[in-house]
Specification:
Length: about 270
């Protein structure tokens, strides 16, 4: 118990260090804030007129998918940050301090939640401008935002393991893009999954990105009244399916990431 308390205490210090870094490298914050605005405006005004959502507004349908895509891409900051710290020798400095070995990874994943919170705020404000609205009340909406952040936090542990396993920031950026890009597009993020060819539709229906997107739309009240009921369990119960994935990812990747960090730190 004492080791766990120390790990979280030291992790909090590392998280504060990473948040303070925003002031010193404001370019990172600019990217975090501008990217969501660009995606919302691009899809709402460029592609929105070409995509039909029966019985509803595409712009309201879109925002849940944009939320999911952006927080998932935001999870890559964890891997990139850890890879950068290794590249610059900062891990060596951490080793010389009387701190918990797992604190660096815990602090990194915790601080990156801040990036996603900022992104969601900017996206929500931009969404309101283009016509998105919350229809099921503020409590339900907060649950939707919380679920998105929880899913992104779980994925940040996957990115932590990848970031500790690659030699540079460039590799983590390229590797994460190659995986996350198709994962977020072969889903119901930007078009209804019913419109996809059968093999892609089946993948999209069981894709956890589709589930978290569907859950967000339900909690925001953005499911059109005439929308057909999903035929697969994952989309009929998107909140439960998302939480199952969160638990599985955390159980698998938290210990793997911590052990990987300890091995990497021991070699540096």
């Amino acid at each position: 118990m004492e080791r766990i308390k120390r790990a979280f205490s030291d992790g909090n210090v590392i998280a504060q260090r990473n948040v303070i870094r925003i002031k010193r490298v404001p370019e990172v914050l600019v990217f975090v804030l501008i990217s969501p605005i660009m995606f919302v405006l691009l899809f709402a005004y460029v592609f929105g007129s070409s995509i039909d959502v029966p019985g509803g507004s595409y712009r309201e349908f879109l925002i849940g998918g944009i939320f999911a895509q952006t927080v998932i891409f935001g999870a890559t900051f964890t891997g990139a940050g850890l890879a950068e710290d290794m590249q610059k020798g900062i891990i060596n400095r951490f080793r010389s301090l009387p701190m918990s070995q797992s604190a660096v990874v815990f602090g990194r994943t915790a601080s990156d939640v801040i990036y996603n919170v900022l992104s969601l705020i900017i996206m929500a404000l931009t969404g309101l401008v283009v016509g998105w609205r919350i229809h099921d009340g503020i409590v339900s909406a907060l649950l939707g935002f919380g679920l998105l952040l929880l899913f992104a936090y779980a994925l940040s542990w996957v990115m932590a393991l990848v970031g500790l396993s690659v030699p540079s920031v460039e590799v983590i950026n390229n590797a994460s893009f190659m995986v996350i890009f198709p994962l977020t597009f072969i889903a119901n993020t930007f078009v209804p999954s019913d419109n996809l060819p059968t093999p892609l539709r089946v993948f999209a229906e069981w894709n956890p990105v589709s589930a978290v997107t569907q859950a967000a739309r339900e909690l925001f009240g953005n499911i059109p009244a005439g929308t057909p009921e999903p035929t697969v369990w994952s989309l009929q119960n998107p909140i439960a399916y998302t939480l199952i994935w969160v638990v599985i990812i955390l159980i698998v990747f938290v210990p793997l990431s911590v052990r990987k960090y300890q091995r990497v730190a021991a070699k540096t």
